[in-house]
Amino acid sequence: MTENRLSSGDTAPDFTLPTDTGASVSLSDLRGRKVIVYFYPAAMTPGCTKQACDFSDSLSSLESSGYTVLGISPDKPEKLAKFREKDGLTIALLSDADRSVMKAYGAFGEKKMYGRVTEGVIRSTFVVDEDGMVEVAQYNVKATGHVAKLRKDLGLAS
């Protein structure tokens, strides 16, 4: 199984990754804000699209509650740009092409899919507090309904 899973109270691994716009985002630059970091397997697949749209639909209320949302996949920035355009996404989309950030968060490794063990992205969500500590660590989340559940877990009105 994945060795380095994070738990509440752990220091969130810092990262700097390119976005779909060609800029880059560093977790350490977001100190002072709460950050929702979620990992998803692939842009423009049904589950990942549903999850990204849910986060985009909730973005203004999440931001008004002090949260920044970062969606991270192994897709290249060019594919992420198409994903944003096609689905009108408003969240930040980051590219972790070498999967190093996913591995640091325990969001890449062995998983069961259709009864077979494969290696891949483990759909996971982390809430990082203003000081860079993991507040919430959720692995193997469902794409559908996850944002509503996360909002409830965080005590945010739906």
Give an overview in words:
The protein has helices spanning 46-64, 77-87, 100-104, 146-153, and strands at residues 16-18, 24-26, 34-39, 67-73, 92-95, 108-113, 116-121, 124-128, 134-139. It is α/β, with parallel strands linked by helices and 158 residues long. The strands form 3 sheets. Strands 5-4-3-8-9 form a 5-stranded mixed sheet. A two-stranded antiparallel ribbon has the order 1-2. The chain has a two-stranded antiparallel ribbon with strand order 6-7. A hairpin with a 5-residue loop joins strand 1 (16-18) and strand 2 (24-26). The model has no long low-confidence stretch (mean pLDDT 93).
- Which structural category fits the helices and strands? alpha/beta
How much helicity do the residues have? 25-40%
Mean pLDDT across residues: 93
Q: Enumerate the strands of the largest sheet in spatial order, edge to edge or round the barrel.
A: 5-4-3-8-9
Q: Tell me the number of strands.
A: 9
Poorly predicted regions: none
Global Rg: 14 Å
